[in-house]
Amino acid sequence: MKQYMNKNLITAGLMLGAGLFAAQQVSAFELDFGVVGNSQMQFNAKDNPTAGPATLKFNPSTQNNATKTFDFQVNATVGGAGNAVGDYGTLGGTYAIAPIITTVGNIHYYVATTGTATTTVLAGSSGRIAFQDFTETGVVTGMGTFTLHDGTGHNLTGTATLSKITDTYEVTYNNNSGNTVHSTSFISNGLTGTGATTGTGVTLNLTGITYGGTQSDLVSLATGDLGPDGKGRAELDLTWSFNGRTLTSQTQSGGGVHRVSYSGHVVSDAHTLPDGGMTLALLGAALSGAAVFKRRLVG
Question: Do residues 110 and 132 share a domain?
């Protein structure tokens, strides 16, 4: 009987400790944003590699209003109180883009009778519509400061490191030989990092996040996932609107300056909130209590 009671008490202590830890678990937090006014992502193309790499930067709005010094505005949050919606932000820095590498996919032939596609050249397929996917990838180097203004004089800041740019598009041909382009359609694009990742493979390319204000959404972002330096870290991804140009033509072909609208999101993974050691203290107390009862019961 004494051993049975002792076992229950230790189990209860462990369950109490586990419950205290579980109480600190917080869900992932996501913040979505879009451009303000006429702010843009600017590609400075270089048609000659010897002239240096193409570059990318973010231009703030030039409209004559109160938002002229900002690049973007928060339009939605997930997992928070939503009080960051409406906050303005900036993304600084100039990023260099290495020559783009293009991966060419198979040509697919449309089968009108079944509404499907096949990579097999069909008998008598001359004149049939065919399509082909292309994926472009480039290495990006550089970093800049990501800033969010909470409207009360406090700013959240972090270091943004962008290291990979991609673009996928589809070319449609009006015959099976693929020598006559009918149209080019956008599929997807993205600008993110390729550095250290979490256990789930998520890239943490917004690091050193700090915030001294009280807006709960920004507190969640700054404290959500702490790095070795004790500062926040998160995933930053950007996408831009398709303007009829492939990534190669925006960064290399013909040179020139190309500007596009963009949007993005920041995600901080699920985490355990710091509690100043209170959880460990309470757990230790619970286990110590169980140990005292053990000595009394078996003694």
Answer: yes
Residue numbers of the domain that contains 295 = 1-24+275-299
Rounded to an integer, what distance in angstroms lies between the CA atom of residue 67 and that of residue 89? 10
* Confidence (pLDDT) at 200: 39
Is residue 18 situated within a structural domain?
A: yes
Bridge-based pairing of strands 130-141 and 101-111 is antiparallel
**CA angle in degrees (0–180, nearest 5) for 259-262-268:** 145
Backbone dihedral angles phi then psi of residue 51, each to the nearest 5 degrees: -85, 0
Cα–Cα distances in angstroms (integers) from residue 12 to residues 1, 8, 15, 20, 49, in the given order: 17, 6, 5, 12, 68
240 and 154 housed in the same domain: yes
Give per-residue pLDDT as tens, 68-100: 589 999 999 999 999 999 999 999 999 999 888
Tokens 């339009």 locate to 75
Does 196 lie in the same domain as 116?
yes
Are 8 and 92 members of one domain?
Answer: no
- Domain count across the chain: 2
Positive or negative torsion for Cα 23, 27, 31, 32? negative
In the structure encoding, which two tokens stand for residue 25, read together?
A: 């678990």
Helix (H, G, I), strand (E, B) or coil at 13: helix
- Is 29 inside a domain boundary? no
Cα of first residue to Cα of last residue in the chain, in angstroms, is 13
pTM of the model: 0.74
Question: For the chain (length 299 residues), average pLDDT per consecutive 10?
Answer: 42 41 61 93 81 89 68 94 95 92 82 57 54 88 94 95 89 64 80 55 78 96 91 92 82 82 87 42 42 37
Q: What's the pLDDT score for residue 22?
A: 43
Residues 148 and 279 in one domain: no
